[in-house]
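Trying the structure run again after the queue cleared.
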Amino acid sequence: MIRALWTAASGMEAQQLNVDVIANNLANVNTVGFKKSRVDFQDVMYQTLRTAGSPSARGVQVPTGTQVGLGTRPVATQKMFSQGDFTQTGNPLDMVIEGDGFFQVQRPDGTIAYTRDGSLKLDSQGRLVNSDGYVLQPELVIPSGATAISIGSDGTVSVTMPGQAQPQEVGQIQIARFVNPAGLSSAGRNLFLQTAASGEPETGTPGLNGFGTIAQHFVEMSNVKVVEEMVNMIVAQRAYEINSKSIQTADQMLDLANNLRR
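Done. Tokens:
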């Protein structure tokens, strides 16, 4: 019964983490470029009371053993990189990647971060930056006075200047992808960082060699599905309640054992 107390407690702790992750998903339901997370669980070690195949008599083996599990534990919170819905904004600096890939931005410490958030702006120097002012890589500068900005599906950025009939090309957007995007580390601010698990980034031109294409005037919304997360919340809550009932039952059994009289 003492074993049951700790086993059920591990289940309650695991479901608490599950609810925390679901709550974060729901909190970011309207966050541009957000990718939902899922908790993966494993059963922990088992106490073996009798080994399968051990002899029970001469020439006779036990067909099945006796093992008692000691609970569960969370082993990963995996990012799910399914495509979110696209929302049309009409803003010429808003972009989405249709397919595989990440935008690259440079943080103040010089490191490169990766994001699916394509809601870009211009800084005081005319550079394309994200909402925190991190510069898009490779750096692109929009000339002052440009009357129109056009971004092609291959990432080609062109502008129309006053008095000119034909647009002029000012740069090319490059995107990155990873062998294992789920291995990226979430850094907040809609950014991901490279890790040993994600592998090295592969950069390329949108639309070539399996990279996604660029669509202008759109942003990619969160891939969180509210109904799905609410169902997951209910399941996690019920699992938490069931584990608490296991603790109550084990406690009642201990109480009965303590109150036995000769």
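The first helix runs from residue 2 to 27. Worth checking whether this holds up in the mutant runs.
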